[in-house]
Amino acid sequence: MGKRIVYADILKENTPGAGVEIEEPKIKHLIIPDVENKLDTIIETDQSVVSNVDFLGQVKGGVITDTFSATKIFDMDNGNVQKMLVTSNLTSLSLSNKVAGSSYCIILKISGSGNYSIPQPDSTFGTRTDNSVDDSEENWYPTTVGSKIIYSIIVDAENETFYSIETITI
Hints:
It is a single chain. The protein is mainly beta. It folds into two domains: 1-56, no CATH class; 64-168. It contains no helices and ten strands. The strands form three sheets. It has a six-stranded mixed sheet with strand order 3-5-7-9-10-8, with no helix packed on it. Strands 1-2 form a two-stranded antiparallel ribbon. Strands 4-6 form a two-stranded parallel ribbon. The chain is globular. The termini are far apart.
């Protein structure tokens, strides 16, 4: 069995010893297995872990497949990698709930009959990097079915946002 680590609010001077129970509802337990470099637990709410790993923002895995919307707002609380099948013209792209120090990936996959228009994202995507596909040019995006447009978004510690675009044409 793994080691049980109990962490508490240091300001309240909660320092439990082995086998001591704390009756404060905000205290969470982590089970650390004896396998090196593996955390094996389920935590149901956002937590800060007192160690060399700090979960202060959005740490979300997996790929979220979003429902198509012509005026799409990607909610970054849903996950840091989101994919949407484009089945018609897009009129706007936006982000919500970004967290400083995070990185995100938005993947648009051309579906349906293809040949749809894709707008420049709004200011929530931040500043486009110099080595990105230039989305200010006309017809910058692929239009064939199966092609992908990949937005990489970085939010720095001061909450300044940058994005770059890569495309894969099928």
